[in-house]
Fold this sequence. Notes:
By secondary structure, this protein is mainly α. It has helices at residues 16-36, 42-49, 53-80, 83-101, 107-122, 126-136, 142-150, 152-171, 173-185, 187-194, 213-218, 231-234, 238-269, 272-284, 286-300, 302-308, 310-322, 329-340, 343-356, 361-390, 394-416, 419-424, and strands spanning 8-9, 12-13.
Amino acid sequence: MGKKNVFTIDGRFYYGWVMLLCGFMTMFICYVVKANCTSLFYTPICEELGVTRTAYTQTNTVLTITMLIGSAFIGKIYKKYPVKYVLTGCIILTCLCYLGMSRSHSLWQFYLLSAIQGFGWAGATNLPVSIMVSNWFGPKIKGTAMSIGMLGSGAGALVWVNVISNVIANNGWRTAYLAMAGVNAIMIPVALLLVVSMPSDKGFETRVGDPSPEEVAAAGGVSTQKTGITGKQALKTSRWWFQWIAACVTMIGASAFSSQCVAYFTDITGDKAQAALIYSGALGTLVLGKFILGAISDIIHIKRTAVIAPLFYAAVFICMAMSATNIGFSKGMALFYMIGGSIPSVIPALITVRNFGDKEFGVMNGWMNMAGNVGQIIGPTVAAFIFDMTGTYRLAWIMFAVLMVVVGLLYAASNVSSKKQIEALGYVPQ
């Protein structure tokens, strides 16, 4: 075998880096449009339709329920069909729903379109990026590669949150939904022209980040390519359920932050533009934060990173609560969010590969996304309900801070449970 480095294999440029760029673009466009721009619509739509924030938040609930349903089988679809066609179909569906939302006049129409859109988002955000990285990069560089792909959401937030916010301010929320459809559609030609499912489709027999033949021999001759246990076997372990619940609880807080942050700071400052700036500034820190989190995971091991990182998210919510009396704490919030906000898109995928291997990664990561979907149903609804009952989000932020500490404890429990059970199935967690 010829000499290889992180950019080439056998003298050829490794196409996995193009795939990583595609993953970055998926997060830069699709994830940001779905997860970070939605909160910008809460105040103007609630005011025009004359509904409470709790009532409008249920659009997120129905969307997430259908994402939950879609996540149960979308991993199998990605396993069966070429990634580019599945991703393109999911994006087209989400764009059509945004076009429908731009013409909606009743809350039930938003509920219906959100329900349909959820199936598209199940296959057009984190999951395809995780599959691309898992298919194209070996264990020695997987954490860093995953973080590079996922940090697209931070870069995208700096761009699209401000763009969509300005469209709403100058042209109204209906035009902004049209803009969201157009932005999302940019990803369609990227998927069709550049995405390739497997390294073998481009003639590569090994991946960047795979162990050398000498390292394989030293490990007993067992390759780390596509090894591990099946999804059904993972479901029978307590380790799976500890990490699944941890991912769910993380998204309870994360989705509440994403959906209510702009509304919260608008209430505090009385300035929607300043609130959007604070929010986009926090999201912008993810550009560096996701890379740092992935790199640290490669250095000190994902099992340790998963326990420590949630404490940063706890600090985010403490700063949020304190911002109600001193807006200066919003700067601390953004600083801690650099690491805390990176958790949902980096930790669950890496911990799944570590704990169970990548033999059926697409299937298991789809199931892990279901954990996030459940959290997304609970978080925004609880935060909006507390606001409607108390007139403030402070109690919600304090509660979410406590939950982030619980997340760290759950990951710690996952690290030590089911070890002998998994080893008996023929896989030793790395």
